[in-house]
Amino acid sequence: MSVISIDKDVQALTLTFVAEFDASVERVWRLWEDPRQLERWWGPPTWPATFEQHDFVVGGWSRYHMTGPEGEKSRGWWTITAIDAPHRLEFDDGFAGEDGEPVDTMAPTHGTVSLEAVDGRTRMTVVSKFVDAEQLEQMAELGMEEGMRLAMGQIDAILAETR
């Protein structure tokens, strides 16, 4: 299991996932940079993602949808706010409507991804920051914690294909 800890901090308004992988930092970075690799793990196995746009530069947009078991679609978007390849990525993350455009039903969250070499492996820390405790609880009720754990659990298989 790649996910080694999940920490929900209501005071800090964060949900933090820490995972480790048997691959270099540069190889794990490509999982975020390459939309074809990203869509193989972003989303739980029963809700695979399709990235229709992934402009991986500061200020760039990503637009994606996840497809559920009954064919239903959940759409989302990112705006990349910081890149320090291959160690740090930050982005705003929100829901989108059928047209792929952001909807204002819930404020976007802010994601920070950090990659570091640890004992010959790569430790990936993903921190989602929420605007308030209500949003944190709403996302927890939507299954974000379990969904991310399942999503990150798919990464080892992708990395094993390219060793």
From TrEMBL:
Coiled coil: none annotated. This is Activator of HSP90 ATPase. Belongs to the AHA1 family. InterPro entries: ASHA1/2-like_C (IPR013538), START-like_dom_sf (IPR023393). It holds the Pfam family AHSA1. It comes from the Bacteria. CDD domains: SRPBCC_CalC_Aha1-like. Residues 22-159 form the Activator of Hsp90 ATPase homologue 1/2-like C-terminal domain.
